[in-house]
Amino acid sequence: MIAGVAFPDTPAAVEAGHVVRQMTSPLIFHHSCRVFLFGAIDARARGVRLEAELLYIAALFHDTGLARPFSELTQRFELDGADHARRFLLTRAFPAEYADVVWAAIALHTTPGVPARMGSEIAALARGVLTDAVGLGLDEIDPDQTSEVLNAHPRGDFKNEFLRAYVDGQAHRPDTTYGTVNADVLERFVPTFDRTNMVDRVMQSPWPT
Description:
This protein is mainly alpha-helical. The protein is built from ten helices and no strands. It has one domain: Hypothetical protein af1432 (Orthogonal Bundle), CATH 1.10.3210.
């Protein structure tokens, strides 16, 4: 129990923790646990009911697409993580609709505005990510609860190390960042990155007008 939130202790949740520890760095693992906690804290404050096991598994897998060699060259890292989680759930006989919820939560977790209009677990994951990554809503959380979260899952030099992991997970497939916040990161840290924009795509299309 951390900050009043119980970590799911189902066999699938425990196994997911072991799997993700093998796939990712301690930095990403602790970030993922904080995302679960902050998402659950926010949902509780809003009176939103959710399936804690699904939120926990979504949080654990949400950044696994940044970890090579667990990433594809042709799709966004969010889709990699979503695919990893869906595969994990379906091979453990979870209903397809549960796997779909977790897939959508991970696939959309960096998409501004959309998750908050969707299901509880999808919204909670995005909120947890925003709280841990950019501090959204941090001032609304009891400082004692925040301290409990950080004591259990410390940040360390999170800002710098997370951005480095973000770059390392995508620099080899820059085209997949088009139209996403991910392009912001590569633009800042990769000197050779050539950002695609929608204006050029429209103006350079084969249509005569």
